[in-house]
Amino acid sequence: MKYSTAFRSRYNDNTDRFSKGHIARLASLLTSVLIVLTSISLAFTGLVASREADRQAIFNQKFLLGIALKNTFALMARDQLSLARWDKSVLKISQNIDRDFITDEFIDSLWFDFGLDYNWIIGPTNTVLVESFEDNVQFNTRKLLPTEPLYQVVEKARNSFFKYRTIVESGYNKGRIANTESEPDVAHGYILLDDHVVMLSAMAIVPDDGAYSLPEGNPVVLLSALQLGPKLISDLNNQLSFSDLQFLRLQPSLPEHSLHQVHSITGEQLGFFSWNSTMPGQQIWHTVIPVIILLGILLSVVAFAIARKIGNLTISLAASEEHNFYLAMHDNLSGLANRLQFNRALETAVQNQTDTPFTLIQCDLDRFKQVNDTLGHAAGDTVIKTVADRLMQVVGLAGLVARIGGDEFAILLVDCVDHSRLKDCTSRIITDIRLPIEIENGEHAQIGISLGIAFGPANGTTVETIMAAADAALYQAKDMGRNRAIFAQNCPNIVNQKNMAPINDYTER
């Protein structure tokens, strides 16, 4: 009995030690397996999330580029529409060719006001009545051949006109538009012209609900084209801020997701938009990997909770990216480009100034402090918004307008250093800004504006030197009595009077 008890005692101790060790090892093994499975699950979640984020980012970038190109076609059509839908155009082009009107009002507006590089007017029998490149105009040049890409676009525009035209008492008029913002009688596409890929827009020349109408038969068609060159690429990238956006005729050695193919209206491949894609998947991995290491020592429940959190983080990052990008590039009060966006555009202009000169206009409001002091800051905000609207109305699509300080604005005009055009532009700015601004309760504020103008590369080859030149000209405008525009010093073939030439002679009142 004594030995049995001792044996039983020893047996029970060994059994307990065996059971406890086995359970510990089993628990450790199960815990390790669970941690490994959790880590693998999190790694898989990170992989799926990063790939989905990259896929969504690629989709968004291509979608945004497509929208920007679509908007460019829409702007071309809008600019054409101001001339093509006009009784005067019908009278002086469709009914009787008035060369002076076509040269001085029609083509000049398309080129100088809207920047449309090529313009054609095609007669009902496919005769090229007018053909222009920039401001060079030729009349009755040739017959449009059916094999030409232009011919096919003309036919599309005519077919659209026939489809949407309306019958009036003496003939036909333009089509009616109901519950839509698009123009039904516009045709557009890409073609290869003079070894350049261009964006082409065409529409019939029609009355604007006036006293004129069109007879049966083909209408006269207006075609306009923009080259896919550096200026247009720069305008597109001002909307997109892609990295290294460019257009190439030959396919570059880049991933397919960083390319957008351009085809002609006949399906021929003309070239590629390329850029360095932003891939947020790598950023997501930087978040996921440390989390996996941390959750390796925790239970699977905690790992699962954090995995869900990572999924939510991915969704929130995608949701806030677009909103944050807009806020980062625009001034909250005026809606204009802010200093960051303007500096990027100016840096790009400086980089391209050898081939494409540009103009920088520094603007400073006169008597703005008096408005704040006498009428209050709310009135000052109204003045800033009104000034922003008036500057945009003058500059339009010709340049970038930004608010870079409290009452400081800046304008960047790429490929524009012509003295007469700048004189007209700045004269309009000074005149428009001086108009009274209505404040609440029937009160009015009247301010002025001083402008300093510098040219790249004439006034410097760096951002700092060109901005310094524009600032110096602005200070000179202030010193000479304000409400005027002054060119910076040392501007070859542009300035006079000791290299400091006022554009306007407005003075303070």
Structure description:
Among the domains are: 84-230, Beta-Lactamase (2-Layer Sandwich); 339-487, Alpha-Beta Plaits, CATH 3.30.70.270. Helix content is 49%, strand content 21%. It has twelve helices and 18 strands. Strands 3-2-1-8-7-6 form a six-stranded antiparallel sheet. Strands 13-14-12-17-18 form a five-stranded mixed sheet, sandwiched between helices. Strands 9-11-10 form a three-stranded antiparallel sheet, covered by helices on one side. Strand 1 (118-122) and strand 2 (127-133) form a beta hairpin. Helix 1 runs antiparallel to helix 6, helix 1 (2-84) packs parallel to helix 7 (300-329) and helix 9 runs antiparallel to helix 10 (377-395). The protein is globular and about 100 Å long.
Q: What order do the helices and strands come in, and which of them pair?
A:
Layout: H1 2-84, H2 87-94, H3 99-113, E1 118-122, E2 127-133, E3 136-143, H4 149-164, E4 166-168, E5 171-173, E6 186-193, E7 196-204, E8 221-227, H5 230-240, E9 243-248, E10 259-263, E11 269-276, H6 281-295, H7 300-329, H8 339-351, E12 358-366, H9 368-375, H10 377-395, E13 400-403, E14 408-414, H11 419-434, E15 437-438, E16 444-445, E17 448-456, H12 463-479, E18 485-487
Helix pairs in contact: 1-6, 1-7, 6-7, 9-10, 10-11
